[in-house]
Amino acid sequence: MKLCYFNDYRLGVAKGDQVVDITDAVKEIPHLHNRDLIIGLIDRWDAWKGRVEKAASEGRGLPIKDVRLRPPVPKPGNIVCMAVNYMEDGTLKEKPMINAFHKAATAVIGDGDTMVLPDVPATIFEGEAELALVIGKRATRASQGDAMKYIFGYTCFIDGSARGLPPPGNVFFQMKSRDTFAPIGPWIVTADEIADPQNLGITLENNGEVMQKFNTNDMAHHIPRCIEWASSIHTLEPGDILATGTNHRGLHAFMDGDKIELTIDKVGTLKIDVKDEHKRRWARTTRSQHKDKGGEGPHTPQTGGKYAK
Question: Is 233 domain-assigned?
Fold first, then answer.
């Protein structure tokens, strides 16, 4: 099942090219705003799944092309992002130590929305293609053996970054938690629809050009280990997002006017735009291309716009 939000945060089930409104079928679930309803539904899924299925089968569908999709989890309690969690097509000689960071929930945007690059002296802005897990039930010190039981579903996730901000050192907060820097969507695919999340192709296109292309089987720390480790640090709650990391070799500059499409097998395609009123520019090269050309640093230098040297 594919659960989504659309228009004025109506909760729906996507079926092919249609979406069926199920909001009224689950409105008795306690919530303050429709944007909170999905978390209550996730928490009570076993009891409400039948009503959702009935409403989805009996309701009248609307063409998805005629609605505005919204983030499928507009207000997650936590967004945990795994850091350096891919073997980078075999270019890493050793498995990196497991690590992660938090991203602000207020950074969330949805399909069709715009990532806005802020007025800060970043050396580059990037977006990382990632598979994200949506937690289905409270997980505290979950074991790897039980970890998959805590997954409600999967969605596409783009981890926006403003790199190179001063002061040097631990700058994850100001690099990762900018407004609009956490696009997710277009919906949540429930876990029962994906038999093997550890073998999904991920492709990110920028203006129609493939920039990132990798498979989740290249993760350094597989999904059960990520859940085990994250839940050993703090409790994961229903509706929390755990993003599983990216292959950095295809990272490249996000710039004004870019149209981004992230596609994950069996999950869907998340589309966003990029806006930068300062019109900053970089060469359209990936990190691996920059390295192969003998360039200094991990990415291409800025070539124009505000803050260019």
Answer: yes
Burial category of 282 from C-beta neighbours within 10 Å (exposed 0-12, middle 13-18, buried 19 and up)? buried
Residue 309 covered by a domain: no
pLDDT at 31: 92
CA 55 – CA 155 distance, rounded (Å): 22
CATH number for 179: 3.90.850.10
The tens digit of pLDDT for each residue in 116-146 reads: 999 999 999 999 999 999 999 999 999 999 9
The number of domains in the chain is 2
Cβ atoms of 5 and 72 within 8 Å: the answer is yes
| Whole-angstrom distance, CA of residue 86 vs CA of residue 248 | 8
For residue range 259-282, what is the model confidence (pLDDT) as tens digits? 999 999 999 999 999 999 999 999
Q: What is the pTM of this model?
A: 0.97
Beta-ladder partners of 130: 157
The CA distance from 144 to 227, in Å, is: 7
Structural domain for 41, as ranges? 2-70
